[in-house]
């Protein structure tokens, strides 16, 4: 991807700090609560033991739990009060951070334009860069859960070390794969602004687990579709895509499909527990968004089959 000279977004909080260890309290939290949209999912993990595939330490939907109560019970919260004065990012971390800010700026340009065409105003989300652990309005986040969007504070939480995890553990490296990840989370923000996230969240709270999972899949595939829509418009505006870029995003979408992750983690697949869609579905919806560039073509809630 060609980004030379492109602006960096100002809608960024840099909360990166020295980690220093000692933060192991996630097991008791059970994951993020509330209205969140993350990148991928998995089930059946020890959640907190650190054993097994690290990416499967997962965000589960905690129905009916006020995320703020999770914050209040966080025994480790004091360790988060430390400032970032002793934190010195590596050159690689800084280049990832600059990249993330440029991609966020691009999503602002693209979605402002698309919203304007719909007669609406786009309100950009904030990107919160963090390391190791972070308090959010949706509960505690750790690097292990991967990037996610919290609708309660309209922030995208990203530990840039996740990009290295994508390359080394998920077989999903490449700059445009990382851009897709950010664009997917921005896709959840678009869902928030359009009312989709709240509507589906209400439906999920009233549903059985299997139905809620299916709604989650449709929500996630729409975020993939919106990431594709962004890629389409980004390239139209800036001619930034290079050969292989779309393939990097498609490969990433495929590598984080529920079926692929479950096969790697447990050797078998449980379709009822899918929350993000299969590899083929994620690949197809991103690609569809990229080809059409039109958000009207992304009604995953009425698409059968997906
Ligand atoms: Zn998501």
Label this structure with key terms.
single chain, 306 residues, alpha/beta, five-stranded mixed sheet, two-stranded antiparallel sheet, 9 helices, 7 strands, 44% helix, binds zinc ion
Account of the 3D structure:
The protein contains nine helices and seven strands, in the order E-E-H-H-E-E-E-E-E-H-H-H-H-H-H-H. Helix 2 crosses helix 6, helix 4 packs across helix 7 and helix 7 (245-255) runs antiparallel to helix 9. It is 44% helix and 9% strand. Strands 1-3-7-6-2 form a five-stranded mixed sheet, covered by helices on one side. It has a two-stranded antiparallel ribbon with strand order 4-5. It has helices at 67-72, 91-117, 161-168, 175-193, 196-205, 209-238, 245-255, 258-266, 279-292; strands at residues 12-15, 36-38, 126-130, 133-136, 139-142, 148-150, 155-158.
Helix fraction, binned, reads 40-55%
| Radius of gyration (Å) | 18 Å
Q: Which ligands accompany this protein?
A: zinc ion
Strand line-up of the largest beta sheet: 1-3-7-6-2
Percent range for β-strand residues: 5-15%
Which class do the helix and strand fractions yield?
A: alpha/beta
Q: First CA to last CA: what distance? A: 30 Å
| Biggest sheet overview | 5 strands, mixed
Instruction: Give the number of helices.
Output: 9
- Ranges where pLDDT stays below 50 over 5 or more residues in a row are 20-31, 42-82
Overall 3D shape: globular
The quaternary organization reads as single chain
Mean pLDDT level: 84
The string of secondary-structure elements, in order, is: EEHHEEEEEHHHHHHH
Count the beta strands. 7
């Amino acid at each position: 991807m060609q980004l030379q000279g492109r602006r960096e977004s100002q809608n960024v909080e840099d909360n990166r700090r020295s980690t220093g260890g000692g933060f192991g309290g996630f097991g008791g939290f059970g994951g993020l609560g509330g209205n969140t949209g993350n990148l991928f999912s998995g089930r059946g993990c020890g959640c907190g033991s650190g054993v097994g595939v690290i990416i499967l330490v997962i965000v589960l939907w905690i129905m009916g739990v006020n995320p703020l109560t999770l914050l209040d019970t966080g025994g480790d919260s004091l360790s988060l009060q430390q400032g970032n004065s002793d934190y010195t990012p590596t050159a690689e971390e800084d280049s990832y951070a600059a990249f993330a800010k440029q991609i966020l700026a691009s999503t602002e340009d693209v979605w402002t334009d698309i919203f304007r065409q719909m007669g609406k105003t786009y309100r950009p989300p904030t990107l919160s860069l963090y390391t190791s652990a972070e308090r959010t309005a949706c509960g505690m986040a750790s690097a292990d859960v991967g990037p996610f969007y919290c609708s309660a504070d309209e922030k995208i939480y990203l530990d840039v070390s996740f990009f290295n995890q994508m390359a080394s553990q998920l077989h999903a490296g490449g700059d445009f794969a990382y851009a897709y990840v950010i664009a997917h989370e921005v896709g959840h923000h678009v869902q928030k602004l359009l009312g989709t996230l709240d509507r589906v969240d209400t439906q999920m709270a009233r549903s059985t687990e299997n139905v809620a999972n299916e709604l989650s899949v449709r929500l996630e595939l729409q975020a993939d579709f919106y990431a594709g829509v962004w890629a389409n418009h980004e390239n139209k505006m800036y001619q930034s895509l290079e050969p292989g870029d779309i393939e990097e995003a498609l490969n990433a979408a495929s590598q984080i499909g529920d079926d692929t992750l479950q096969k790697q983690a447990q050797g078998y697949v449980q379709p009822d527990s899918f929350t993000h869609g299969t590899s083929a579905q994620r690949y197809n919806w991103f690609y569809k968004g990229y080809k059409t560039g039109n958000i009207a073509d992304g009604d995953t809630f009425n698409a059968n089959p997906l």
